[in-house]
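User: Glutathione-regulated potassium-efflux system ancillary protein KefF. Structure?
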Amino acid sequence: MNILIVYAHPQPESLNGAIKSFMINHLESSGHQVRISDLYQMSWKPTLDDQDNLVRDNSTPFHPSLDSKAAYENGTQSPDIATEQEKLRWADTVIFQFPLWWFSMPAIMKGWFERVYAYGFAYGYGEHSDHHWGDRYGEGNLSGKKAMLLVTAGGWESHYSARGVNGPMDDLLFPIHHGMLFYPGFEVLPPFVVYRAGKTDTQRMQAICDALSQRLDSLHLTTPIPFRKQNGGDYLIPDLTLREDIRPGDSGFSVHLQASTSK
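Assistant: Predicted structure:
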């Protein structure tokens, strides 16, 4: 299997750094081909701006999506963007590893998505009609590939439970899982989350590695999060709202899961 790791942590001598090294060694020893995008080590430019199209007309105002479209279609993207897109095409599975900072990913990784997800590459294509509204949310150029988040958090697991003060971890990660991974077509695997990251001793690190080994060895068997496909019949088009007969009266993130469908 071709596995891409997109990694965001500034300190190599950290828990994340140790987990990353273990993961690479384990995957390679298991026969997988591994490539890594270590964003801090790469000095990744996180800002989407008019420099990302190498031949843009500077007499016109910068338009994030249209400039991205022109650069992608004309082959004039910044080389670092094109390189990351090539890695995504190569990969069968992508693992995004990061610490949970202020309830989301580090800014440098958010900038990776903003720049690499070009118009025409990750969005902005497919038929738009009365029965199909673009190739997205379960369809798209990244269909057939798997993605998984590997997240470290400083708080206790109970802090991120259904009634925890931080909110459920599944809800915090929903914008990433559904909006950044499922949107362009990834099959999204359940996340691997390490809680109380700052309280990791040798014994606990071994337990983390043991559990991670099991997850990595079963990537091809892991059932994806059962998000509803946009064009699968559950949503009204072009309204893009869930049909009234599905989970009537309910709202929130959980209604977008097939497993929650009322019969």
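The chain has a mean pLDDT of 95. The two ends are 38 Å apart (CA to CA).
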